[in-house]
Amino acid sequence: MKLYFDYPLSERVRNFIRLGQLAQRFHETLESDDKWLHHIAVCTLFELSECASRADLKRDLLHDLERQRIQQNASAEPDQAHLDKLNRAIAELQAANRQSAQSLRENEWLTAFKHKLNIPGSTTAVELPSYHYWLHQDAEAHRRYLEKWSSATLPVQQAVELVLAHLYRHTHTLECGKKRRVPARRAGAKHPSAAHRRGTRTRSGAGGVCQQVFHQHRFFAGKSGKHAQQAQ
């Protein structure tokens, strides 16, 4: 099994990945019928809404989507299905309310719950009996509520999905993970800086240093600059 770790080299891409992972966590917990996973979905909803309401995120998404649309229109054989997705995403993002978290703030019940999250043990039945009642409703009722509360973030979620899919399609993967032996260091010699740059684990042994490279690097470049991701 490969476990991926993202390591973006720009704040713009970091914001995209952050929101993409929050959206993934929200939808995966929402699919379950377990009430405690729905509790996690509610907690994730606040993070998702706050991230999606950032004006700079919307601006960067529109910039990246528009660049993709220009590339498709300039292509000799444009992907019409993808172009339709881009046009729809741009239109919905432009029409979306800039403050997507406002709808949650206007919900007094959710606001009270959010304030309790900062206090350990304050989301129990003793502190929030109304939430305890909601949590014990059936799973379909939970999903209806959560889908309604998260609807304001959907344009941003869909735009991030398109942008990340485009970035991941243009990656160069460098496979790492095999042990290799390097010559022994002389007494007092400095540790090879390359080991630190690659994030390696080292241990001394007879005849040299055995290095275990435990990162896999995936690099992707865009018109606005180079960005990188690390994976295991």
Structural features:
single chain, 232 residues, alpha+beta, four-stranded antiparallel β-sheet, three-stranded antiparallel β-sheet, 7 strands, 56% helix, elongated, disordered C terminus
Overall description:
Helix 1 (11-31) crosses helix 9 (154-169) and helix 4 runs antiparallel to helix 9 (154-169). Helix content is 56%, strand content 16%. The chain has a four-stranded antiparallel beta sheet with strand order 1-7-6-2. Strands 3-5-4 form a three-stranded antiparallel beta sheet. It is elongated, with a radius of gyration of 23 Å. It is an alpha+beta fold and 232 residues long. The model is unreliable at 191-217 and 219-232 (pLDDT under 50).
List the SSEs and their pairings:
Elements: E1 4-5, H1 11-31, H2 35-52, H3 55-74, H4 80-95, H5 102-105, H6 108-116, H7 129-135, H8 139-150, H9 154-169, E2 171-174, E3 179-183, H10 193-198, E4 200-205, E5 208-213, E6 216-222, E7 225-231
Antiparallel strand pairs: 1-7, 2-6, 3-5, 4-5, 6-7
Helix pairs in contact: 1-2, 1-9, 2-8, 3-4, 3-9, 4-9
